[in-house]
């Protein structure tokens, strides 16, 4: 307190605060536009199969169950290599890892255009999952190299919104490409879609080597004083709680409760991403362009919901009930779909509200793991929770495809999703007491 009373000390602190504010803006504008665009491409290349299916299913002889197997094959590869990729990133650096991931997933997307059988389709999707493995948790970990805990929530929210933006544009974009590029270079419409949407990932992967640095120490665009201030901020954040190993995480039941919540949210968003065009087609809409525009509605509303829910959560400094409450809204909407059979407008409305609610839950949900985990636990814990969510992505396409094949419709699948969302909401409320997050919420509020 005495040092702060010294005018020279006070001036020094004020100057450091001004430099730090400018420094974080510089870091944000250097990294986030690239990472934002990369995640947009990542999401588009992951879900473009849902639109390609509209015509490729006939060419390859894919049943709905076979399509579900192909969609799940992606996540089998992704889950198997997600944690190894994150661990390897710590050895070779973020720049090499993200460059490698983007180059491989772009080439795998392009190669998918050449599949000629269901077996080849399964293999292509599996290798796309292997190529993409570690991208999301890798970026989340990478952001911890540049932003201390009190700034990380806002930055992560901006990054996650790119996935919702991708959902908004993927439908109209895929519809336009399939409509206008059928026959281009002798390719069918779905083949052209994979080629055109895979090329940007390759180009951005090449750019990653020049844009990204492994960490602040390698950033030539930061001055020595800025690096010192950043190192101090990160060191202060790292001293909050000591690190513990992966064995401790695996024995922590609360990690599995958080993972169940993420699994239920991800099962919802994943089902919508992979099956919404087919569902809309089943409602009676056959024009690909209109299917594309209707498919973008949940993402438009979801983006608005993200802003509104995150703002409310930050204002009230409350996380658990915001996540659980919006999950219950989604569950109710999916149950109502079963009562709207044959009513296209009301069915689409229920599906849109439910999907948008799940999307809105994501940014607020991802404030909970960093608040619960120590700084030392965060890299492994985030990857583990992400992998648990990936189980939903692996199983949900299989389950939905099987239900559609056996019953002829998707309404039962959405009833199952509703039950899963209720279980996830219950898990986060019962397993994570508000007291475990109160200190972190106080820090966020102070920031």
TrEMBL record:
The entry's cellular-component GO terms read: plasma membrane
Q: Which Pfam families match?
A: MFS_1
Q: How does it sit in the membrane?
A: Multi-pass membrane protein
List the Gene Ontology MF annotations in alphabetical order: transmembrane transporter activity
Q: Where are the transmembrane segments?
A: 27-44, 64-81, 123-146, 158-180, 192-212, 255-276, 291-309, 321-340, 346-368, 380-404, 410-432
Q: Which UniProt keywords apply?
A: Membrane, Transmembrane, Transmembrane helix, Transport
Compartment list: Membrane
The family database entries (InterPro entries) matched by this protein are listed as: MFS, MFS_dom, MFS_trans_sf
Q: What is its main location?
A: membrane
User: Which intervals hold domain Major facilitator superfamily (MFS) profile?
Assistant: 31-442
Q: Does the keyword Transit peptide apply?
A: no
Q: What is this protein called?
A: Tartrate transporter
